[in-house]
Design brief:
mainly beta, 8-stranded antiparallel beta sheet, 1 helix
C-alpha cells in the first residue's frame, strides 16, 4: 500500500497482525488519517463580517434556501442570520394590502432556522405576521402602516 503524504496531515503506518497460534501472519493495510480541525465557531470578538457571511451563504447554504424559500431576495442581518424572502402572492381584493410572502431565516452560527408568513401593504410595510410553529398553533400579529403593534389573535 502506498500513502501519499499531504502537508499538514499525519498518517499512521500499517500494522502487522498475528491472527492466531495456527494462522499465518498477514499484513493488513490499515492507515488512519489524523486531521487537526480548527474551532468552528468564532468567539464573539471574532464575528464574521456581513460580506463574509454573504460569501459563505452564496457557496454553501444559499442555493438550497434560495431555491426553496428565497425567490424574492435575501438579506444578511447584523446578528449572523440570513433572511430569505419568498415572492409576494397578490391579495384577492384590491384593498390596502398587496399580498403575502413566506420568510425563512437561517442562523449561520447555530444552524437553526425559523419561518413566518408576512402580509405586506403596497408600500412594502409588514402589516401582519404569522409565525410557523412546531406545535401547530396559529397566532397572528398585526401592525399599522407606521409599524406599531395593534394586537394579535
Amino acid at each position: 500500500m502506498t500513502v501519499d503524504l499531504i502537508s499538514g496531515v499525519d498518517v499512521a503506518p500499517s500494522l502487522d497482525i498475528l491472527l492466531g497460534a495456527d494462522a499465518t501472519t498477514e499484513r493488513t493495510a490499515f492507515a488512519a488519517v489524523v486531521v487537526q480541525i480548527k474551532q468552528a465557531s468564532p468567539s464573539p470578538s471574532q464575528r464574521l463580517s456581513h460580506e463574509r457571511l454573504h460569501e459563505i451563504d452564496r457557496a454553501f447554504f444559499g442555493p438550497f434556501f434560495r431555491e426553496k424559500y428565497g425567490m424574492g431576495g435575501d438579506r444578511a442581518l447584523e446578528n449572523d442570520r440570513i433572511r430569505y424572502y419568498g415572492l409576494i402572492q397578490p391579495a384577492n381584493d384590491g384593498g390596502e394590502l398587496a399580498g403575502r410572502r413566506y420568510v425563512h431565516e437561517f442562523d449561520t452560527m447555530t444552524g437553526c432556522t425559523r419561518g413566518w408568513h408576512e402580509t405586506v401593504d403596497w408600500a412594502g410595510n409588514v402589516r401582519q405576521v404569522r409565525p410557523e410553529r412546531n406545535d401547530g398553533t396559529t397566532r397572528h400579529y398585526q401592525f399599522d402602516s407606521n409599524g406599531r403593534y395593534r394586537g394579535g389573535w
